[in-house]
Amino acid sequence: MTTQVYPAILLKDAGAAADAPIGVVFPDLPGCTSQGDDPRHAAEMAMEALAAHAEATAADGENLPEPSAPGTTPDWLDPRESEVVAHLLVPVELPGRSVRVNITMDEGLLQRVDRAAASHGFTRSGLLAEAVRTWLRRDKDTPRRRRA
């Protein structure tokens, strides 16, 4: 996978209270937005929004545009309506091409995978890939266990 970095802008509504939610917009990616309770939470949510946007774009057979220069405020952002809290760079792993693999698993587990995939609108491969992505996101900060 290739890592790309996109500029994002953290915003508050003009005149909003200090504890108001902070919005996130990506100038290069219309429709890719998020929000958080504070700047740190907004940055975390920006990473999730960008990852989901990249996956959806790839699933549609399209590519993300090249990122623009960081720190620029787009023309469409009206300073009378929104206050820029911060500019940030958000990394995302761009999906690569699919590769066929051969795995071995218990027959009963494979049947459960197929039923779950069908009930959620996935292919078997799609469900397994999503399960691995979810596990990797959750496991990235967990200490590794050694198998005997």
What structural class should be given to the helix and strand makeup?
A: alpha+beta
Number of helices: 3
User: What level of helicity do the residues show?
Assistant: 25-40%
- Encode the helix/strand succession as letters: EEEHEHH
User: How many beta-strand runs?
Assistant: 4
Low-confidence stretches: none
How much of the sequence is in beta strands? 15-25%
Provide the spatial order of strands within the biggest beta sheet: 3-2-1-4
Which of globular, elongated, flat, extended, rod-shaped describes the shape?
elongated
Sheet of most strands = 4 strands, antiparallel
> Distance between the terminal alpha carbons, to the nearest Å?
30 Å
Q: Look at the structure and give the mean pLDDT.
A: 88
Radius of gyration: 19 Å
